[in-house]
Amino acid sequence: MDRKTFLKKILQISVLGVFPGLYSWQVEPFWIEFVQRKLPVKNLPQALEGKILMQISDLHVGAYFDWHFLIDSFQKAQQYKPDFVVYTGDFVNTGILQEQRDLKKVMENCVLGTLATFGILGNHDYGKNWEDIECSEKICDTLSNSGITMLRNTQEESYGLNFIGFEDLWSSRFQPVEAMAKYDPSKANIVLCHNPDACDLDIWNGYQGWILSGHTHGGQCRIPGIITPILPVKNKEYISGEIDLKDGRKLYINRALGHSFQIRFMVRPEITVFTLTQA
Fold it and tell me: What pTM does this model have?
Protein backbone atom coordinates (compact mmCIF):
# COMPACT_ATOMS: atom_id res chain seq x y z
CA MET A 1 0.00 0.00 0.00
CA ASP A 2 1.48 3.34 -1.05
CA ARG A 3 1.34 6.48 1.10
CA LYS A 4 -1.57 8.04 -0.86
CA THR A 5 -3.73 4.93 -0.50
CA PHE A 6 -2.81 4.63 3.17
CA LEU A 7 -3.86 8.23 3.91
CA LYS A 8 -7.10 7.73 1.97
CA LYS A 9 -7.93 4.68 4.08
CA ILE A 10 -7.19 6.59 7.29
CA LEU A 11 -9.49 9.42 6.15
CA GLN A 12 -12.30 6.97 5.34
CA ILE A 13 -11.99 5.29 8.73
CA SER A 14 -11.98 8.68 10.47
CA VAL A 15 -15.14 9.78 8.65
CA LEU A 16 -16.86 6.50 9.51
CA GLY A 17 -15.91 6.99 13.15
CA VAL A 18 -16.99 10.62 13.38
CA PHE A 19 -20.31 10.34 11.53
CA PRO A 20 -22.21 8.28 14.16
CA GLY A 21 -21.12 10.75 16.85
CA LEU A 22 -22.26 13.80 14.88
CA TYR A 23 -25.51 12.08 13.91
CA SER A 24 -26.38 11.09 17.48
CA TRP A 25 -25.52 14.59 18.76
CA GLN A 26 -26.79 16.97 16.07
CA VAL A 27 -29.37 15.06 14.00
CA GLU A 28 -31.43 12.46 15.81
CA PRO A 29 -32.10 14.50 19.01
CA PHE A 30 -34.02 16.96 16.81
CA TRP A 31 -35.63 14.45 14.42
CA ILE A 32 -39.07 14.13 15.96
CA GLU A 33 -41.38 11.24 15.14
CA PHE A 34 -45.15 11.50 15.48
CA VAL A 35 -46.14 7.94 16.32
CA GLN A 36 -49.73 7.33 15.24
CA ARG A 37 -51.66 4.36 16.59
CA LYS A 38 -55.06 3.30 17.91
CA LEU A 39 -55.89 3.22 21.62
CA PRO A 40 -58.80 0.85 22.32
CA VAL A 41 -60.46 1.83 25.62
CA LYS A 42 -63.07 -0.19 27.49
CA ASN A 43 -66.40 1.61 28.04
CA LEU A 44 -65.39 4.46 25.76
CA PRO A 45 -68.45 6.62 25.00
CA GLN A 46 -69.58 6.45 21.38
CA ALA A 47 -69.12 10.22 21.12
CA LEU A 48 -65.36 9.81 21.70
CA GLU A 49 -64.84 7.20 18.99
CA GLY A 50 -62.16 8.53 16.63
CA LYS A 51 -61.11 11.41 18.89
CA ILE A 52 -57.40 12.19 19.15
CA LEU A 53 -55.47 11.79 22.40
CA MET A 54 -51.90 13.11 22.23
CA GLN A 55 -49.19 12.10 24.69
CA ILE A 56 -46.19 14.37 25.26
CA SER A 57 -43.56 13.34 27.78
CA ASP A 58 -40.21 14.31 29.29
CA LEU A 59 -39.56 17.83 28.00
CA HIS A 60 -36.47 18.22 30.21
CA VAL A 61 -36.25 21.98 29.75
CA GLY A 62 -32.67 22.79 30.70
CA ALA A 63 -29.24 23.83 29.51
CA TYR A 64 -28.21 20.54 27.89
CA PHE A 65 -29.96 21.12 24.56
CA ASP A 66 -31.77 23.84 22.66
CA TRP A 67 -35.27 23.86 24.14
CA HIS A 68 -36.51 25.94 21.21
CA PHE A 69 -36.83 22.51 19.59
CA LEU A 70 -39.69 21.87 22.03
CA ILE A 71 -41.56 24.96 20.85
CA ASP A 72 -41.03 23.96 17.23
CA SER A 73 -42.35 20.46 18.02
CA PHE A 74 -45.41 21.92 19.74
CA GLN A 75 -46.16 23.95 16.63
CA LYS A 76 -45.97 20.81 14.48
CA ALA A 77 -48.15 18.92 16.96
CA GLN A 78 -50.90 21.53 16.69
CA GLN A 79 -51.55 20.32 13.14
CA TYR A 80 -53.09 17.13 14.56
CA LYS A 81 -55.74 19.18 16.42
CA PRO A 82 -55.84 16.85 19.43
CA ASP A 83 -59.03 16.55 21.44
CA PHE A 84 -57.17 15.43 24.58
CA VAL A 85 -53.53 16.06 25.47
CA VAL A 86 -51.67 14.39 28.34
CA TYR A 87 -48.21 15.38 29.60
CA THR A 88 -46.54 12.54 31.48
CA GLY A 89 -43.86 14.26 33.55
CA ASP A 90 -40.29 15.59 33.68
CA PHE A 91 -40.96 19.11 32.47
CA VAL A 92 -37.54 20.34 33.66
CA ASN A 93 -34.13 18.74 33.93
CA THR A 94 -32.71 19.80 37.31
CA GLY A 95 -35.37 22.21 38.59
CA ILE A 96 -33.09 25.22 39.06
CA LEU A 97 -34.62 28.68 38.88
CA GLN A 98 -33.47 29.35 35.31
CA GLU A 99 -35.13 26.16 34.11
CA GLN A 100 -38.35 27.17 35.83
CA ARG A 101 -38.22 30.49 33.99
CA ASP A 102 -37.47 28.80 30.67
CA LEU A 103 -40.33 26.37 31.24
CA LYS A 104 -42.74 29.30 31.38
CA LYS A 105 -41.50 30.45 27.96
CA VAL A 106 -41.82 26.95 26.51
CA MET A 107 -45.32 26.39 27.93
CA GLU A 108 -46.57 29.64 26.42
CA ASN A 109 -46.56 27.57 23.21
CA CYS A 110 -47.80 24.29 24.66
CA VAL A 111 -50.27 22.00 22.94
CA LEU A 112 -53.73 21.95 24.54
CA GLY A 113 -56.58 19.60 23.80
CA THR A 114 -59.82 21.03 22.45
CA LEU A 115 -61.68 19.03 25.13
CA ALA A 116 -59.17 18.70 27.98
CA THR A 117 -55.48 18.68 28.89
CA PHE A 118 -54.00 16.79 31.84
CA GLY A 119 -50.53 16.44 33.32
CA ILE A 120 -48.54 14.62 35.97
CA LEU A 121 -45.10 15.26 37.43
CA GLY A 122 -41.94 13.22 36.95
CA ASN A 123 -38.94 12.72 39.23
CA HIS A 124 -36.97 15.61 37.69
CA ASP A 125 -39.79 18.00 38.59
CA TYR A 126 -38.82 17.45 42.22
CA GLY A 127 -35.36 18.96 41.77
CA LYS A 128 -32.23 17.74 43.47
CA ASN A 129 -32.49 14.16 44.76
CA TRP A 130 -36.20 14.32 43.86
CA GLU A 131 -36.84 16.03 47.21
CA ASP A 132 -37.55 19.67 46.34
CA ILE A 133 -41.27 20.02 47.06
CA GLU A 134 -41.17 23.80 46.51
CA CYS A 135 -39.81 23.23 43.00
CA SER A 136 -42.63 20.79 42.19
CA GLU A 137 -45.23 23.27 43.43
CA LYS A 138 -43.84 26.08 41.27
CA ILE A 139 -43.81 23.81 38.22
CA CYS A 140 -47.41 22.84 38.90
CA ASP A 141 -48.34 26.52 39.12
CA THR A 142 -46.71 27.19 35.74
CA LEU A 143 -48.49 24.24 34.14
CA SER A 144 -51.86 25.12 35.65
CA ASN A 145 -51.49 28.69 34.40
CA SER A 146 -50.76 27.24 30.96
CA GLY A 147 -54.12 25.47 30.87
CA ILE A 148 -53.08 22.01 32.09
CA THR A 149 -55.08 20.23 34.79
CA MET A 150 -52.55 18.57 37.05
CA LEU A 151 -53.43 15.18 38.52
CA ARG A 152 -51.62 14.51 41.77
CA ASN A 153 -52.82 11.13 43.02
CA THR A 154 -56.24 12.19 41.78
CA GLN A 155 -58.64 11.46 38.96
CA GLU A 156 -60.86 13.61 36.81
CA GLU A 157 -63.46 12.76 34.21
CA SER A 158 -63.82 14.69 30.97
CA TYR A 159 -66.54 13.98 28.42
CA GLY A 160 -66.89 10.43 29.72
CA LEU A 161 -63.16 9.63 29.74
CA ASN A 162 -61.68 9.28 33.23
CA PHE A 163 -58.01 10.16 33.78
CA ILE A 164 -56.18 8.88 36.87
CA GLY A 165 -52.84 10.55 37.58
CA PHE A 166 -50.05 9.38 39.91
CA GLU A 167 -47.39 11.48 41.56
CA ASP A 168 -43.91 10.26 40.67
CA LEU A 169 -42.71 6.90 41.99
CA TRP A 170 -39.42 8.34 43.29
CA SER A 171 -40.99 11.33 45.04
CA SER A 172 -42.22 11.56 48.62
CA ARG A 173 -45.71 12.36 47.28
CA PHE A 174 -46.25 8.99 45.55
CA GLN A 175 -49.59 7.73 46.91
CA PRO A 176 -50.99 5.34 44.30
CA VAL A 177 -53.41 3.62 46.69
CA GLU A 178 -55.05 7.00 47.22
CA ALA A 179 -55.19 7.53 43.46
CA MET A 180 -56.77 4.11 42.81
CA ALA A 181 -59.14 4.05 45.79
CA LYS A 182 -62.06 5.33 43.72
CA TYR A 183 -61.28 3.30 40.62
CA ASP A 184 -64.55 2.47 38.88
CA PRO A 185 -64.23 -0.34 36.30
CA SER A 186 -67.51 0.69 34.67
CA LYS A 187 -65.89 3.92 33.43
CA ALA A 188 -63.56 4.50 30.51
CA ASN A 189 -60.26 4.89 32.38
CA ILE A 190 -56.70 5.85 31.48
CA VAL A 191 -53.86 6.00 34.03
CA LEU A 192 -51.00 8.48 33.73
CA CYS A 193 -47.89 7.23 35.54
CA HIS A 194 -44.45 8.68 34.78
CA ASN A 195 -42.28 5.75 35.86
CA PRO A 196 -43.36 2.37 34.42
CA ASP A 197 -41.74 0.49 37.33
CA ALA A 198 -44.91 1.34 39.27
CA CYS A 199 -46.67 -1.25 37.11
CA ASP A 200 -44.95 -4.00 39.13
CA LEU A 201 -46.22 -2.78 42.51
CA ASP A 202 -49.31 -4.15 44.28
CA ILE A 203 -51.25 -0.91 44.02
CA TRP A 204 -53.68 -1.34 41.15
CA ASN A 205 -56.94 -2.33 42.84
CA GLY A 206 -57.94 -4.62 39.97
CA TYR A 207 -57.37 -1.97 37.31
CA GLN A 208 -57.99 -3.01 33.70
CA GLY A 209 -56.89 -0.65 30.96
CA TRP A 210 -54.10 1.53 29.63
CA ILE A 211 -51.21 3.06 31.56
CA LEU A 212 -49.35 5.86 29.76
CA SER A 213 -45.77 6.39 30.93
CA GLY A 214 -42.50 8.06 29.99
CA HIS A 215 -39.26 8.25 32.03
CA THR A 216 -37.12 5.78 30.07
CA HIS A 217 -36.54 7.91 26.94
CA GLY A 218 -36.42 4.55 25.19
CA GLY A 219 -32.87 4.34 26.51
CA GLN A 220 -31.89 7.29 24.24
CA CYS A 221 -29.22 5.13 22.61
CA ARG A 222 -29.80 1.52 21.64
CA ILE A 223 -29.28 -1.17 19.07
CA PRO A 224 -32.67 -2.95 19.04
CA GLY A 225 -32.45 -6.58 20.03
CA ILE A 226 -28.82 -6.20 21.07
CA ILE A 227 -28.25 -3.53 23.73
CA THR A 228 -29.95 -0.65 25.53
CA PRO A 229 -27.15 0.42 27.89
CA ILE A 230 -28.87 3.22 29.84
CA LEU A 231 -32.33 2.40 31.18
CA PRO A 232 -33.43 4.04 34.48
CA VAL A 233 -35.89 1.33 35.54
CA LYS A 234 -35.64 -1.88 37.55
CA ASN A 235 -37.67 -3.82 35.00
CA LYS A 236 -35.43 -3.80 31.92
CA GLU A 237 -38.35 -4.94 29.73
CA TYR A 238 -39.79 -1.45 30.10
CA ILE A 239 -38.05 0.27 27.21
CA SER A 240 -40.61 1.91 24.93
CA GLY A 241 -43.83 1.34 23.03
CA GLU A 242 -46.71 -0.99 23.88
CA ILE A 243 -46.28 -3.72 26.48
CA ASP A 244 -49.03 -6.19 27.38
CA LEU A 245 -48.86 -6.78 31.14
CA LYS A 246 -50.96 -9.96 30.74
CA ASP A 247 -53.49 -9.09 33.44
CA GLY A 248 -55.86 -6.75 31.63
CA ARG A 249 -53.46 -3.83 31.81
CA LYS A 250 -51.53 -2.47 28.84
CA LEU A 251 -48.59 -0.11 29.14
CA TYR A 252 -47.43 2.43 26.61
CA ILE A 253 -44.01 4.04 27.18
CA ASN A 254 -43.36 7.26 25.25
CA ARG A 255 -39.73 7.72 24.11
CA ALA A 256 -39.70 11.38 25.30
CA LEU A 257 -39.62 14.64 23.42
CA GLY A 258 -36.65 16.13 25.25
CA HIS A 259 -33.62 14.51 26.85
CA SER A 260 -31.35 14.88 29.84
CA PHE A 261 -28.32 14.97 27.54
CA GLN A 262 -28.28 15.83 23.85
CA ILE A 263 -27.58 12.41 22.43
CA ARG A 264 -29.84 9.86 20.74
CA PHE A 265 -29.08 6.87 18.58
CA MET A 266 -31.88 4.81 17.00
CA VAL A 267 -34.33 6.30 19.54
CA ARG A 268 -35.93 9.33 17.92
CA PRO A 269 -37.83 11.82 20.11
CA GLU A 270 -41.55 11.05 20.10
CA ILE A 271 -44.97 12.60 20.37
CA THR A 272 -47.66 9.92 20.38
CA VAL A 273 -50.92 10.53 18.53
CA PHE A 274 -53.55 8.04 19.69
CA THR A 275 -56.91 7.58 17.99
CA LEU A 276 -59.45 6.53 20.61
CA THR A 277 -61.54 3.46 19.75
CA GLN A 278 -63.96 1.28 21.67
CA ALA A 279 -62.34 -1.90 22.98
Answer: 0.92
